[in-house]
Structures are given as structure tokens and as C-alpha cells.
Design brief:
alpha+beta; about 375 residues; 10 helices; single chain; eight-stranded mixed sheet; binds flavin-adenine dinucleotide
Length: about 375
């Protein structure tokens, strides 16, 4: 059943109504630009996935009148701690950052998507579902999209906000350069007694892999851990064992609300534009979820692209946003390698250097600014 009939023509067709496509749609709707957004799913995914919303993303959501509702649904965390086992190496605070949102908001991805969709509807728009784009053909005057139903839509421009396996990117011929990492991630939302408490995000380094623990609304915690080969659906025992190994004596799990496996790729599209086809979000870049930056970067891409359309500055979009993805990929890559080194010498040097660096206010501010993505304004 189609929620709304598909128009024959539009100025901009957005393929994919994840956080990136929705942020773009809200930006265009706010600016009064004509667009259509389609998604192959009958309704939005209702899983937890990306649970961190950084300060820069909240600033973008301020512009879209969507931040207040989201903030009400999440919890605000002002501290980020780095440990090796139970030894604290570094604490970074967000509360002095020069932003109206000096904190990290913890909220499941379905809430972020719901807030953006609600805002889109308030502005008079909606997502056309379920429409799967099967073919994307551009010519000098426009682009023809053909759905799996056989229906077509003619657009001036098409944006691929259709995730990592983007059909729009495929059709554009733009390369997706990078590689798949050997390791995978266990993700789980759990209830537990967690010794460090609910006021900080905790990143624990270890030769066996990284472990991130962050509080979520509803008394839950999000656990993210790198492992060589994660089970498809990690169970409570698996998550408990991982935390026992990496954060000995800190965690006592009592329930598991959601879990998943995430295979890590580090890839960036060689270009964000091929004439009338543009890419944003996971269609343009994918990387480790360790810094919680995938969805954030996608929402910021969507906003930047929407503003570029609204102001007629489409040529600047790739130059503005592709270097951001390069920095995010390099940053998460460095963090993962530094955190999981098996060399005792490198580990000892890291554990000596980090507490020293952590005494330098300039270093703490730089790290907090990078994590909050505030240097991407
Ligand atoms: C299990 C899991 C856990 C994750 N955990 C984290 C995390 O902890 N931290 C983090 O930062 N990130 C995480 N991510 C990544 C994060 O979810 C993505 O970065 C984010 O969703 C990207 O948003 P997007 O809108 O660009 O793409 P997506 O969310 O992938 O949305 C793409 C949309 O396009 C639609 N679509 C695709 N192809 C077509 C087509 N041909 N026609 C029509 N529609 C189409 C899809 O149905 C989908 O709705 C996780 C992802 C997964 C899958």
C-alpha cells in the first residue's frame, strides 16, 4: 500500500529516508524548495543503531526547529572518559564548549528519525513508501528514476541518501574507495549495574578490543565492542563476557533490550557529485561506529546539501563536506588502532602519554571539539 501517490516530476528526488534523507527533506521543505523523498521500506526502521547526537548536529537541528523535541527524548552527557581496563587515562568534558549544546545527547536512532519525520510533516511534506528505486538514468536535462513497481519519476537532480549499498552511487559510476576491516562490532542496549555510573561515556582500550559504554534513556546502557567475529545477534552472556574481559569487575548485566552485529568498512566516495546525481550520508562515507559519528555526519551532509540547493551553491557541496568525511574516517581509524594495539611498548607509551596530555587544557579542548564535530561548522 502506498501512503501517497508518486508525482511524475520534481525538482529534487531524494532516495532514502534514513536520518540523512530526512534532514535534507526538512531543510528543503523549510526553504520552500520542491522535492520528493522515497524509501523502499513500508515504514521507518525502529531499531536503536546510532545512539549519539553530537553538539554540531544539535546546532543543525536548531536551524531546522527539531532540536528541542529530540533533546526532550534523550539524556545529556557532559563527560567522556578513556580507560585501559579499570585504569582511567583521560577525562574530556564537553561542558565548556562554545555551543548552545555543551554535551552529547544519547538517544536511539529511531527517535532521531521520528523527530525529523514529524518536523517534515509539520512543514507539509511526507515520505513516499514503499518505493524501491531500481534504475537511475541521467541525461543533460534531468534524471529518470524507475521504481520496482514500474512507476517513474523525472527529477532535475537526484540525491542518493540510500545508505552504504547506494543504488544512486552505483548508477553514477562514482567509486567507493576504502576497505573492509577484519573486525566487527557487537552493539547492545542492556540493563546493568555499571560501576562508572550514568554520567559519562566510557571508552576502554584493550589488546582484545575496544569497549564503549554509554547511558541511554529508560535506564539502559549502550555497549559497543570490537571483536574479530561477532555473532549475528549477540546474547546477554556474550556481552557480559566481553565486558568482564575488558572492564573487569565493572559490569553486572541484568537484561538485554536490543543487540546487533556491525561489520566495519572504511570507505569514502571518490566524488559527491556526478552532474545531476549527488551523494550524502552512508552512501558517501562509512566508518567505524567507535566515535558515534556516522549518523551525525550524514545529518550534517543532508543539511549542507539542502542549503546548497536552496542558495544555488551546489558546486561548493563536495568541497565543503568530503573533507569532513575524510577527517572522521582518519580520526576513528587512529582511535581504533591506538586503542587496540597489541604491542606492549606502544601500549605503555600510550598509557603514559594520555594522562600527561590530558593535563593540557588545549589538548582536552581539541579532543572535545573533534568529538562534538564543532570544527566542521
Ligand atoms: C545495526 C547497526 C548499528 C549501527 N550502530 C551505529 C552506532 O552505534 N553509531 C553510529 O554512529 N552509527 C551506527 N550505525 C550507522 C548509522 O545507522 C548510519 O550511519 C546512519 O543510519 C546513516 O544514515 P543514512 O540516512 O545515510 O543511511 P541509512 O540509515 O542506511 O538510510 C538509507 C535509507 O535508504 C533506503 N534505501 C536504500 N536503498 C534504496 C532504494 N534503492 N530505493 C529506495 N530506498 C532505498 C533504506 O530503506 C533506508 O531507509 C549503525 C548501523 C547499523 C545497521
Amino acid at each position: 500500500m502506498n501512503a501517497t501517490a508518486l508525482p511524475a516530476r520534481t525538482e529534487i528526488a531524494i532516495v532514502g529516508a534514513g536520518p540523512t534523507g530526512l534532514a535534507l527533506a526538512v531543510t528543503l521543505a523549510s526553504a520552500g524548495v520542491d522535492f520528493v523523498i522515497v524509501d523502499r521500506l513500508l515504514e521507518g526502521a525502529n531499531t536503536s543503531r546510532a545512539a549519539v547526537v553530537h553538539a554540531r548536529t544539535l546546532e543543525v537541528l536548531d536551524e531546522l526547529d527539531a532540536s528541542k523535541e529530540l533533546i526532550d527524548r534523550g539524556i545529556q552527557i557532559t563527560r567522556f572518559a578513556v580507560r585501559d581496563g579499570s585504569r582511567r587515562l583521560l577525562t574530556v568534558s564537553f561542558d565548556r564548549l562554545p555551543t548552545p549544546h555543551p554535551y552529547t545527547l544519547m538517544v536511539p536512532q529511531y527517535e532521531t528519525e521520528d523527530v525529523l519525520l514529524t518536523r517534515l510533516r509539520v512543514l507539509g511534506g511526507d515520505v513516499h513508501r514503499p518505493y524501491e528505486v531500481n534504475s537511475v538514468i541521467q541525461d543533460q536535462d534531468g534524471v529518470t528514476l524507475t521504481m520496482s513497481t514500474g512507476e517513474t519519476i523525472r527529477a532535475g537532480y537526484v540525491v542518493g541518501a540510500d545508505g552504504m549499498h547506494s543504488a544512486v552511487r552505483e548508477a553514477s559510476g562514482i567509486g567507493f574507495t576504502g576497505s573492509a576491516y577484519g573486525e566487527s562490532f557487537v552493539l547492545a542496549d542492556v540493563e546493568m549495574d555499571w560501576a562508572p555510573g550514568r554520567r559519562e561515556v566510557s571508552l576502554t582500550f584493550g589488546a582484545a578490543g575496544l569497549a564503549v559504554v554509554a547511558p541511554l534513556p529508560g535506564g539502559h546502557y549502550r555497549v559497543v565492542a570490537t571483536v574479530d567475529d561477532a555473532p549475528i545477534t549477540p546474547d546477554l552472556g556474550c556481552v557480559q563476557r566481553l565486558l568482564d574481559e575488558r572492564t573487569p569487575g565493572q559490569a553486572n548485566l541484568t537484561a538485554l533490550a536490543w543487540s546487533s552485529r556491525f561489520r566495519v568498512h572504511h570507505r569514502i566516495a571518490d566524488h559527491y557529485r556526478s552532474n545531476r546525481l549527488l551523494l550524502a550520508g552512508d552512501a558517501a562515507h562509512v566508518h567505524s561506529p567507535a566515535g558515534g559519528q556516522g549518523m551525525n555526519t550524514g545529518i550534517q551532509d543532508g543539511y549542507a546539501l539542502g542549503r546548497a540547493f536552496a542558495t544555488g551553491q551546489l558546486d561548493g557541496y563536495e568541497a565543503q563536506r568530503r573533507p569532513v568525511a575524510q577527517r572522521v574516517v582518519a580520526f576513528t581509524d587512529r582511535m581504533t588502532k591506538m586503542g587496540t594495539t597489541r604491542s606492549p611498548a606502544v601500549r605503555a607509551a600510550r598509557n603514559t602519554a594520555l594522562p600527561l596530555l590530558g593535563r593540557l587544557p588545549a589538548f582536552r579542548t581539541k579532543l572535545a571539539t573533534e568529538l562534538a564535530e564543532l570544527n566542521y561548522r
